[in-house]
Amino acid sequence: MTEDFAQVRYLVDDVQAAVDFYTTHLGFTLRSSAAPAFADVVRGPLRLLLSGPASSGGRPMPDGEVPVAGGWNRIHLVVDDLDAEVARLRQAGIRFRNDVVTGPGGSQILLIDPAGNFVELFQPRR
Fold first, then answer.
1. Strand-by-strand arrangement of the 6-11 sheet
2. pTM of the model
3. What's the CATH fold of domain 6-58+69-124?
4. Domain boundaries, the chain
5. What's the rounded Cα separation, in Å, for the pair 45 and 81?
6. Which Pfam families match (predicted)?
7. Model confidence over 51-99: pLDDT tens digits?
8. Which helix (H) or strand (E) holds 88?
């Protein structure tokens, strides 16, 4: 592959809802779509692969376990003004898992995509 992307796969239960979420609210661009099975969106060097139940990534494992959407793994997006981003996203009706927390490296909050996957917004300490 000639492109330099970090690639992350998220299992989602509705590919179009996930595409709409990431492109409308988080600045991703649709790269390709084979909805309802699969789509991929990009933001900078991140290629986010959105795999629905009909995709190969969503199929049951040989032992019968079925992959499910959501979980504690997350992509980490750096923002310049966390408070402004949180206000904008709350206004758009986006769900959050917690309130802003501040630690030694900066401040962060977790938002939830339509399938229950987490996205961390992070503002580094200045």
1. 6-11, 46-51, 38-43, 29-34
2. 0.85
3. 2,3-Dihydroxybiphenyl 1,2-Dioxygenase; domain 1 (3.10.180)
4. 6-58+69-124
5. 21
6. Glyoxalase
7. 998 888 888 888 988 888 888 789 999 999 999 999 999 999 999 999 9
8. helix 82-91
